[in-house]
Write a structure and sequence with these properties.
The complex is a heterodimer of chains A (about 260) and B (about 375). By secondary structure, chain A is mainly alpha-helical. Chain A has a single domain, classed as MetI-like (MetI-like fold), CATH 1.10.3720.10. Chain A has 13 helices and no strands. In chain A, helix 12 runs antiparallel to helix 13. The longest helix of chain A has about 30 residues, at about 230-260. The radius of gyration of chain A is 22 Å and the shape is globular. Chain B is of the alpha/beta class and about 375 residues long. Chain B has two domains: about 1-140 and about 270-335, Periplasmic binding protein-like II (D-Maltodextrin-Binding Protein, domain 2), CATH 3.40.190.10; about 150-270 and about 340-364, D-Maltodextrin-Binding Protein, domain 2. Chain B is built from 16 helices and nine strands. In chain B, the strands form three sheets. In chain B, strands 4, 7, 8 and 9 form a four-stranded antiparallel beta sheet that branches. Residues about 20-35 of chain B have low confidence and may be disordered. Classes of the chains: A mainly alpha (about 260), B alpha/beta (about 375). The interface between A and B is medium-sized, with 32 and 33 residues.
């Protein structure tokens, strides 16, 4: 009973700032301009399927790259001395002290024509454009969300009981086997929450592609941003579809996670 | 460690909140020595739209507070649509708003503006005749023009070989990948319509379709659709040519000597923003005092020196440096202005269609 009382502030918060807005989006999405019930906004929203696909693709790619970079890093972190762990963790967090937009600006300057990267590569005789394409968007995303992948994996890994590892070693496992049979399975919950924390915001983000992408790299977040001022119904419909996509993704992730934990 | 991180995160969040609050802080936070309390005036304006008192310039909002004792609360919007949505859908009270011409028409149509008492705005007589008779407010009942400008072309002399004369340079295949375009449906569509020989002020849905085709043709050549990013792109020598607002082009040219401008031969869009009092206002007298103050010649000149958009105030123009006064970007000739068109009234449905088509263009 007591615990229920304690959760009242959060439930109220959820109700006012999460549930009611979602219901409002839901209602708006089924209205036409005159305010009558209509499925037209959804018909219009599905006109942006290619943008949906592109956004999900960019998000998936960014998530994968983050995972590939973050997993070994998190693993190495757990094997360091405690003081070094803190230092490295701190360094990982430093970029997050700066405003998101400033960091994207910085990437824009790094990648632009006659910028540092271009100048350095020109010395080596390599000429090219490094901004205004999908790769630049993915780089921006990875930079943006990497800490969100490292931290949950590291937290879960550092909680693995040392006795389990010793037990595995006593039973004759070499390092590779210890990793495969003990550390990897136990780190899955961290990986799952890492993937969620990177995929969800990167699928719905906007601005990154506006600054780093070219004319073909518009993402679904940008479409919502642009269309919302004049056509709230279509904007809401797109948001709703995006939410459903992400919800399905999360459910799938959790199913996968549970199975792994049992195995 | 976790504690440190959470403290840092909290600090960052606090920091960002303060930054947001500070956005318009220059006006209200620095306490002025007001003569006596005369209430307040809630100004809802474009971001960075008054001289903030940097360098030799005066902080005009503070000057107003000092002179009248009325406290200015300033909030900002970044699109006309944002302004409209705020007025329409939330229970707010603003006393002075500064919408653009087409939004003024819309607000008048929907009875969202109050008629002004011009007896309280004696400085209105300082405005030139062209800007006293605005096409969005033909009987001059609701508006006092604040500033105006035209769209024009800015280009990089080192990258564009032949001096451009008209909008068609934006479709020049030899500049492929170096062309920037407005990321704003109205301005982009208007340019495309001019290229198709359509009058943008009287456009129909079919005309929008034609303009969209024209923009589709242009898309492979376009590097980016931009608004504020145009400054970085052009000042940094990243792109060759871009359409933008003339006052801002003057600013860019001060930063990069390689830049030059072109007032397109076929004419361009003459836009203006006008101060109005919305029906939700609770301090109409203060609002009129504010509007009047902004049309004082020395104040209007100060704002001009900061913004570089044309001022409608003839008395103010007399106070401006000769060099700035003769700048064609800030003050195009009367003949050129007569070639320009004004988006005074755009059908809601056509505008929504324009917006949708423009998003579709970018999404395909």
């Amino acid at each position: 009973m007591k615990s229920k009382k304690l959760s009242i502030p959060y439930i109220l918060w959820m109700l006012i700032f999460t549930m009611i807005p979602i219901v409002m989006i839901g209602v708006t999405a089924f209205k036409d301009k005159q305010g009558n019930f209509s499925l037209e906004p959804f018909a219009k929203a599905f006109g942006y399927t290619n943008v949906f696909m592109k956004s999900l693709w960019i998000a998936l790619l960014s998530t994968l790259i983050c995972l590939v970079l973050a997993y070994p890093l998190a693993y190495m972190l757990t094997r360091m001395r405690k003081s070094s762990q803190n230092t490295v963790q701190m360094i990982l967090m430093i970029p997050m002290w700066m405003n998101f937009l400033l960091r994207i600006y910085a990437w824009m300057i790094l990648l632009q024509k006659n910028g540092p990267l271009d100048t350095a590569l020109s010395f080596l005789g390599i000429h090219g454009t490094y901004i205004g394409n999908t790769a630049a968007v993915v780089v921006g995303m990875v930079y943006e969300y990497l800490p969100f992948m490292v931290l949950p994996i590291y937290t879960v890994m550092s909680k693995i009981d040392g006795n389990l590892i010793e037990a595995a070693q006593d039973l004759g496992s070499n390092n590779a086997a210890v990793f495969k049979k003990v550390i990897f399975p136990l780190s899955i919950p961290g990986v799952i929450s890492g993937i969620t924390m990177v995929f969800v915001p990167s699928a719905s983000t906007f601005l990154v592609s506006q600054y780093l992408g070219g004319t073909d790299d518009i993402m679904i977040g940008d479409v919502i941003d642009k269309i919302f001022w004049t056509d709230q119904s279509t904007g809401s419909a797109i948001s709703l579809i995006l939410m459903i996509f992400i919800f399905v993704f999360l459910v799938l992730m959790n199913l996968f996670g549970d199975e792994e934990a049992i195995a | 460690m976790k504690k440190i991180i959470s403290i840092l995160l909290a600090a960052v969040m606090l920091g960002s909140v303060t930054a947001v609050l500070a956005g318009c802080g220059s006006s209200s936070s620095e306490g002025s020595s007001a003569p006596k309390d005369k209430g307040e005036v809630n100004v809802y304006s474009w971001d960075d739209y008054f001289s903030p008192g940097t360098g030799d310039l005066k902080n005009v909002l503070e000057e107003f507070e000092k002179e009248t004792g009325i406290k200015v609360n300033c909030t900002t919007y970044s699109t006309n649509e944002e302004l409209y949505t705020m007025l329409k859908q939330s229970n707010v009270s603003y006393d002075v708003i500064i919408p653009s011409e087409y939004m003024v028409s819309k607000l008048i149509r929907e009875n969202m503006l109050q008629e002004l008492n011009y007896d309280n705005i004696p400085n209105y007589k300082n405005l030139s005749e062209r800007f006293q008779k605005l096409s969005c407010d033909p009987d001059s009942k609701y508006t006092v023009c604040y500033n105006w400008g035209v769209t024009a072309l800015v280009y990089d002399k080192t990258k564009v070989k032949n001096k451009p004369t008209d909008w068609d340079v934006l479709w020049d295949k030899s500049l492929s990948g170096q062309i920037l375009m407005f990321d704003n449906s109205r301005d982009a569509m208007a340019i495309a319509m001019q290229q198709c020989g359509i009058d943008p002020t009287k456009c129909t849905k079919e005309d929008v379709d034609k303009a969209t085709e024209k923009l589709k043709e242009q898309k492979p050549l376009v590097k980016k659709y931009v608004m504020d990013q145009v400054f970085n792109e052009m000042e940094g020598g990243q792109s060759a040519v871009a359409p933008y607002y003339a006052g801002d082009i003057a600013m860019m040219m001060e930063e990069n000597e390689d830049l030059d401008y072109c007032l397109p031969a076929s004419g361009s869009n003459l836009f203006y923003d006008a101060m109005c009092v919305p029906t939700c206002s609770k301090n109409k007298d203060n609002a009129e005092a504010f509007i009047n103050f902004m049309q004082k010649p020395e104040i209007a000149a100060e704002n001009f020196n900061y913004l570089r958009y044309g001022t409608p105030n003839e008395k103010a123009i007399e106070l401006i440096d000769e060099e700035l006064k003769s700048n064609e970007l800030s003050f195009p000739s009367e003949e050129y202005l007569n070639k320009c068109y004004v988006f005074s009234d755009l059908d809601d449905e056509v505008y929504a269609y324009m917006q949708q088509k423009f998003v579709d263009l970018q999404a395909t």
